[in-house]
Each structure stands twice: as structure tokens, then as C-alpha cells.
Amino acid sequence: DYVPQVKENMKGKEKVAAVDPVLLPDKAIWHPVAPSIVFENNVDYFNWYNNEFCAEAGIDAKTAPTIGLVLQKSHINTKDDTHYVSLISELESRGARVVPIYSGGLDFSGPIEDYFYDPAGRPIVDTIVNLTGFALVGGPASQDHAKAAKVLKRLNKPYMCAVPLVFQSFEEWQASELGLHPVQVALQVSLPEIDGAIEPIIFAGREGATGRSVPLSDRVNLLADRAMKWANLGSKKVADKKIAITIFSFPPDKGNVGTAAYLDVFDSIKAVLKQLKSEGYDIGDAPLDKEAIMESVLNDPEAKISSPELNVAYRMSTDEYYELTPYATDLEENWGPAPGNLNSDGQNLVVYGKQFGNVFIGVQPSFGYEGDPMRLLFAKSASPHHGFAAYYTYLEKIFQADAVLHFGTHGSLEFMPGKQVGMSGTCYPDRLINSLPSAYLYAANNPSEATIAKRRSYSATVSYLTPPAENAGLYKGLKELKELISSYQGLRENEGRGPAIVNSIVSTAWTCNLDKDIPELPSLETYDAASDSAENRDDIVGKVYAQIMQIESRLLPCGLHTVGVPPTAEEAVATLVNIAQLDRPEDKIESLPRVIAASIGRDINDIYRGNNNGVLGDVELNDKVTEASRAAVRALVNQSTDSNGRVKEVKDMFDEVGAFFGSMLGQKKPWTQAIINAGFPNVEEE
Length: 686
Hints:
The protein is α/β, with parallel strands linked by helices. The strands form 4 sheets. Strands 11-12-13-10-14-15-16 form a 7-stranded mixed sheet, sandwiched between helices. A 6-stranded mixed sheet has the order 2-1-4-3-5-6, sandwiched between helices. The protein has a 3-stranded mixed sheet with strand order 7-8-9. α16 links the parallel β15 and β16. α17 runs antiparallel to α18, α20 crosses α23 (616-639) and α23 runs antiparallel to α25 (670-677).
């Protein structure tokens, strides 16, 4: 029995009084050096923080940018908060105020609404950094994107979501060519991106022996630098902000300078400069004419990336380059010592572009390798050349840009060697962009490469429309063929003229090389429609008609898109007709052709099958449904067109009032009436 011995040993010793546990509220503001463990309102927090802490820390509470931090309560409960303390210290050492909030669950929208606004409802924070790695509302299991988007839209501030390593040790992550574990990419990069998060920078992980969170010092420094740059963008005077517009040659290294996929680059730059000027940015003596802008930067509209005609904005000596570019010597393995042969005059590294006030329009250098830049993703030993590195060094440290706008799809920065997701300090996209906030105009039809730009070059991507598409239409022999088919439709019962027209259709189809697409097309030498049955003639004409319709309805892009300029009414119709052909069961919306077909008791899928099989009646009906859809869309577009003839929502309450009184008088909506006029009188209004 050991109890007597324990009692004997305890004689004369002071008893230890157990301290009652401290129960933290479910949500609050926490600061590692606050006298109170937490604050349950931001008034009390700022009374202490502004008046006591900032005064001692040398932070000017009136002018300092404010960074909102989103934390997990579990780390504060268990005092496993070293990674949080590290980032808070780095931000405050740079002169920022911080508002670190937490939630006991995985819905962080409540604390944001409670603590990131002042009593008047104005946002207190300039940037938000989510350090949990989770989506803003619901975590990985029950994400509520709609709620998160509503909260972030109201706040309207840059929203960064940094990532702590979960499934890998530091060593495993550093050694991995993939970078972040694919499962963690799905849960803690992709899901936050749906909310609108940017910059998935890995800032911490777990120590192997104890399992406690440990900060990655170089990543914490980068995260602090980038958060500060985004915050300063919101507080800096507009006239003092410096913007670097970066243009490319597309396809990379092969096209003319100042080109991008589907984008009229210089016309778009003109629109951006005009908008910047109207908002108070200093654009100096920048011309507001497309050709003049092009001339000032390129000197030659046909200039290639290696053209000597490009305007030289800056010559960087090799001494300056090595002093300002910490990783410059790492490039010598592939390119030798600077300046090298690319973007060089033999003595200096050359930066191409033109500065207008506080706006610099620069030409991103070539990526230096022949072939597809995508290969750089997988090239273990490759690196950017000295000229490429000098360009981004110039933007950040000499021009001192507050932000860079990468203009169009696409350049080479995001394809530089390094991990796929979760960059380390040795990955070249990370080294090149460093602390520069980046916005990237990317074509809306290329989300995969836009995602690469977002994750690897820390870019906030902004989608631009591809040019409006128009139906390819018909010409020459194909147009003649359609006219013959139209004639046959009216004379198919005429045993004299019907077969003759079919012979002409077969002959013209061979002339147009449609035999390559229609295996059943009869031989031109042996076929005579007069000796064929009416059913077979209809079958032949139906197959030719179906092929003609397919060719005619193919979409071709019309010109190039200009940023900020909506399509004209005519340009929009063909694109919208094709969009209207899609069923959206997730929204319980049926396609327009399905609605039209249902009004005559047909299923659109049956019509499509008959059309594809060359059933003449279904081919004709499909054409009729398509034309009705086009008429309805045209009527809708006409209701949404501004005074310049461009598609823009210009309806107001008077339109709705007019529609209300129109319905009382039995009038149909214009798009419904258009379908009725096209031969479908039983189509339903709703």
C-alpha cells in the first residue's frame, strides 16, 4: 500500500492550489502581448492597442496600414501560436497595425463582421490574411461560398489565404517538385480560391518531434511584405501610386510585341490609361491614341521581342544588377555571368518600355528557351536569364512599382521553374515577383493557365472576354447548295423537278468536298435521283442539309476584345444563341430550344438525333428552332443595348413598370413574341 508513504512525504509541504481553467469566448480579438487574454469588442481592443501598444512600439496608429488576421481558436487555446506571433511581429515591425481575430468553429464570417468595421460601418482593415488555410465559411466539409462571397464583397479588401503545411514535413515539401501535397491543394488552396482568396503562400508547418507549429522565417517575411504592399495600395494617394503595365509577345517569343490571345492590347491599354487619368493617377504625357502609345513603346508596330527598335527605358549596369538581385549568381549556371546576350547591349542589361508619369509600360523579356514555355514547369535545371531577372528587379527596386498589371494571355513569369503549388524561396516565379502585388488579365476561356498564374506568380487574375463569336455562314458553292436544298423543300413532290434538283445537290456536294464528311453521299458517276425512291432522296438531301447547317453554325471569333468595351448588339447575338442552347439543370433552367420544341410536343434531343441522322423533317425543324432562338435572343439584346449600340444593362424601374402594364393588357414580352412570329404560337411566357 503506497498511500501512507505518499502522505508521509507530503508532510510539511505547501499544497499547490489548482488554477481554474480560463474559458475563452467562441470569438474574439487576440494579441500575444495584450494584458487581457482576448477582447470581445474592437473598441476595447483599439483603446489598448492604439493608446498603449502602438505608442511603445513606435507605430503611428493614425496613419499605419491595418492588417486583419484570421486565426484558429484551437492554436490560441493550446498556446501553439508561434507561427501567429511570428507574422504579427513582422507586420508590426514594418509599421502596420494588426487585428487578429479567431473563431471557435470554421465560420469566420461572424468575427469579420463584428471586428473589422468601426461603429459607423466602415472597414477598419486594409488587407485580410487568413492564416487557417481553410475556406472562410464552413471549412473543407461544408463550404458556404455564397455567404463568404457576400461577406468579402461588402468588405472589398484584398483577401490572402496563407497555408500551413499539414500533410508534409518541411523536408518533404522542400524536396518535392510538386510542392504542396495534392490533397492539401484541393482543401486549402482550391476551396479558398472559390471565395476569392489569392496568394497561397506556405508560412508554417509542424515540428517533427513535438508536433507544434513552427513558422518558416523567409516565407513569413514574404507574406508580411506582400500584405503590406496590398494594404498600402488602399491607403496611398492615387496620384502617388506607381503602376507597371507589362506586355508580352504572343505566342511567346514568336508573335509581335504587344500581342495577347484574343486581346487588342494597345487599344485596351488606351482604355486603361483613360480610366487611370479619370481617377486621378499621374499618367504624365501619355498619349491617349492607340497608334501613338504603340509607337512610343515599340517604335515599330511589327517589332519582335528581339527587335533593336524597342524603346529603351533603363540601362542597368552589372554592378547594380548583382547588388539588387539576390539570386543573380544562381542564373550563371545556365547563362554565364551578366549581362549575357539577351536584353543586353553588351555592357548593361536593357529594360524595354516607356514611362509616363507614374505609369510604366514595359516589355517582358523572352523566356530564353525555344519551344513552349510550359516546358519550364518541368525543367529541373532551367532558369530565367539575366535580362528577365533584371526586368522584375527594375520594376520592384528602381521604378518602385506599387503594383504590376500583366496585360493579357500570356507571358512567361508563371511558367518559370519551381514547384507547381506552394512556392519556396528558390522557386523562380516567387523570386521574380517577390513583394510586387500583381494583377493579371487572362482570357476567360483559359482558366487552367490562369490558375497557374494565380498560384505560381501570386497574381490576382482578372478575366477578359474572348471576342464575340459569329456563325461562320456559307459562301460560294456551300451557299448555292443551301439554295438548292431550299428549292427541293418546295418541289420534293414534283416527280419532274424534284429528282433533277437532287442530282444538282449531289453534284454540288461533291464539288464542295462534302464526300469527306458524308460517307453515304452517292457516287457522282452512277447516281440518278429519277430512279431512286422519294424516301432515299429525302435521306440524301437531309444528310447534306445537316452538314451544311453544321458548317454554317460554326462559331468564329470576330476580331479582338478591348478591355472595358462590351460587344455590339450584332456581335452578341450568335454567342448568346449558343449559350441559350445549354440546359442548366443545377439552376432548373431549360435551354431555349428545349422550351421551343416542347411547345409543339417534341423533345429537342429527338430533333437533334434526327438532324444528325439526316432526317430531312428534323433537319428543317432544327433550323426553324435555331432561327426562333436567334429571333428571341435578338429581341432580348435589343432590350439591353445602350445608346452606343453596345450590350449593356440599361433597364430601369420604368422598364419593369412597362412590362407590368403590358402583361395586364395581354401583351407578350418581346422575346416571346419573336418566337411566336417565328412559327411557334404555343410557346409559354414563363
